[in-house]
Design a protein that fits this description.
With 327 residues, the chain is an alpha/beta fold. Helix content is 40%, strand content 10%. Helix 3 packs parallel to helix 4 and helix 10 runs antiparallel to helix 13. The longest helix is centred in the last third of the chain and has 16 residues. One of its GO terms (molecular function) is oxidoreductase activity.
């Protein structure tokens, strides 16, 4: 899958179209919605049924109210979901969305670098069945085909599954969560069991398989000029967990492991997510066609599956440095 969050922020429309044409099919007020417009204009060049279009509806937010016409706080309720979908359809200039996901939960959960649950932050939230009923209406209208979640926990996944089963509502089919060599524990601890095909059969769409570009190795380069346009330098504080000294040290170890086995670090990182049995798809992102080519070539050219000795090396590093981006 191709992630597009850089479109309209770090990329021009032409760059976006070039990447979308090559690919085989941090939000702010000034650029919000531009990604949809770029994709929508590009989609005119190909048959609609040749593209699987996935997008999201925002979760709870007191800061991103500009995404709605008349809201001080964003919620995952029927009004907000409907408005989000209608605006996306208009920008995409299409009749339907293949996969609609909740970007992050309506309730409080630890997010984006926060590791542990803080019970004092609990708040009232939109009931799970109410959220699903809103999606059901959109599915019945033919505007959405399937639904999923993102940045979700085991509790949330199970509540959505139970609400769907008990009330005959649509079942979530996917979960888009952070998963890579530097961030394994949040998913592997128990979500992998919940989402297993023999249990609730929910596919993981692994985002940031290169840890925001960290696992390309470019931040190991001491030449700042080469990386000043890169995400972690353009947006101070963004994904800062990957800038930790321990994360960089661990990245260096994976770089050496890849080199020892004749692989690039990108091949190692993308091969890891590709070969994980619980991963349905990896979401790669790029800010140039060159990066996109490198990602796709690495995904396709790394040994399938990675050799046992490479996997052993990965597990050896993991035992020493479990999720260095969080701990």
């Amino acid at each position: 899958m191709l992630g597009t969050m850089t479109f309209g922020e770090q990329n021009t429309e032409k760059e976006a179209h070039d990447m979308l044409s090559y690919y085989p099919i941090p939000m702010k007020k000034e650029t919000q919605g531009r990604t949809d417009l770029y994709i929508g204009r590009w989609m005119k060049s190909i048959p609609r049924d040749k593209v699987i279009l996935a997008t999201k509806v925002c979760g709870y937010s007191e800061r991103a109210s500009y995404c709605r016409d008349n809201a001080k706080v964003l919620r995952v309720d029927a009004v907000n979901i409907k408005e989000s979908v209608e605006k996306s359809l208009k920008r995409f200039d299409t009749d339907y969305i293949d996969l609609l996901q909740i970007h992050w939960p309506d309730r409080y959960v630890p997010l984006f670098g926060e590791f542990s649950y803080n019970a004092s932050k609990w708040r009232e939230s939109i009931p799970f069945n109410e959220q699903l009923r809103a999606f059901q209406e959109l599915i019945a209208e033919g505007k959405v085909r399937y639904i999923g979640v993102s940045n979700e926990t085991s509790f949330g996944v199970m509540e959505f599954v139970h609400a769907a089963k008990n009330e005959g509502l649509p079942k979530i089919v996917s979960i888009q969560n952070n998963y890579n060599l530097l961030a394994r524990c949040p998913f592997e601890v128990d979500l992998v069991e919940v989402c297993h095909p023999k249990n609730y059969n929910i596919g993981l769409l692994a985002y940031s398989p290169l840890a925001g570009g960290t696992l390309s190795g470019k931040y190991l380069d001491i030449n700042y000029e080469a990386t000043q346009r890169c995400r972690l330098n353009l947006f101070p504080g963004y994904m800062e967990r990957y800038n930790k000294s321990l994360a960089k040290e661990t990245t260096g170890l994976y770089f050496q492991l890849a080199k020892e086995h004749g692989l690039t670090l990108v091949q190692l990182a993308l091969g890891f997510t590709r070969d994980s049995s619980h991963v349905a798809s990896s979401i790669i992102g790029a800010t140039s066609v060159g990066q996109l080519k490198e990602d796709i070539d690495a995904f396709l050219s790394s040994p399938r599956p990675l050799p046992p000795e490479v996997r052993e090396g990965i597990e050896g590093i993991f035992k020493r440095y479990k999720d260095p981006a969080f701990f």
